[in-house]
Amino acid sequence: MKIGSSELILNADHSVYHLNLLPQDLANTIITVGDPDRVKHVSRYFDKIDIKKGKREFLTHTGWLNNKRISVISTGIGTDNIDIVLNELDALVNINFDTRTIKKVKTQLDIIRIGTSGAIQPDIPIDSFLLSEYAIGLDSLVHFYDSAHIQHQEIQQAFIKHTNWLKDKSSPYVVEYDKTLAAHFISDKIQLGFTATNVGFYGPQGRSLRLKLEDENMNAKLASFNYNNKRITNLEMETSGIYGLAKLLGHRAISLNCILANRPNVQFSSRPDLAIDELIQYALGKIA
C-alpha cells in the first residue's frame, strides 16, 4: 500500500523532509549527537567526507574511516526530535521513495549516540564514560506506538510505586540497549548505567531557577530507586526515545554518555570539550 504524501513528506529533490537526505547519502552505521556543532568534531576524524547536508538543527556528514562508511547526524535536543530522526532514518533505508511502499527486505542500522549527561549517583566520576544498559523514559514518545512488547513492565511498576508517580504525568517506560552492538564498545573505560530520559533540562531534571518544582525530591527518588541491583545512574534527554524506536523499527542502538555533571556533588567538568572529544575518539576507534 502506498504511503500518502502527507505522511511521508519529501522535498522537491526527493529527499526526506526534515533530514534533507537522499537514501544514498546515509551510511548503515550512524552516530547521533545533539549539538549540530558537534558533527564537525566527529567528522574531522574521518579519512574522507562525501556528504555534508543540513536543514534546521539536523546536520549530517557522511564519510569514511578505515574503509568503513559512517554518518554522523545532529538530532537537536529531546525525544520529540528523536521521533523525527529515527523515523526518517528508517524511511531512508526501508521505504522506496519512488513507489512510496515499504521494502520487503529490511535494512538494519547501527545507531550510536554520543552525548553528554549528568550523574545522579555521587560515586560516578566527572568526565567518565557511561553506556546506557537500560533507559527509563519519563517522556511520552514510545506510548504513541504499539510498544508494550518492548517495555520492561516489572521495572516500570516498581519505579511508579517507589516514586509515588503522579497519574497525571506520562507513565514511565523502560527499554533496553542492543546487547550485540554494545559488546563492541564495552571495556574497562566504560561503565554500564541505567539512564533516565526526561522532557526538559530544568524542572524535569530537578533544576529550579525561579519556578517552584512540583516535587523537590524527585532526583533523590530517582537516585534511591533500585531494582535487582539496578540503580538509575544519570539524566539526559534522548536515550529512551532512541532505544524505543530503534527496537520497534528493527535497528540496533546504544547510548554513550560523557558525564559532565555530578548533581549530588554539585560539580561540573572543568574540561568538557576535551572529555567529549575523548569519548568521540573512543567510539570511532570501536566503530572503525
Automatic annotation (TrEMBL):
Domain of life: Bacteria
InterPro entries: Nucleoside_phosphorylase_d (IPR000845), Nucleoside_phosphorylase_sf (IPR035994)
Organism from which the protein derives: Arenibacter troitsensis
Domain Nucleoside phosphorylase: 30-261
Protein name as catalogued: Uridine phosphorylase
GO biological process terms on file: purine nucleoside catabolic process
EC number: 2.4.2.3
GO molecular function, one term: purine-nucleoside phosphorylase activity
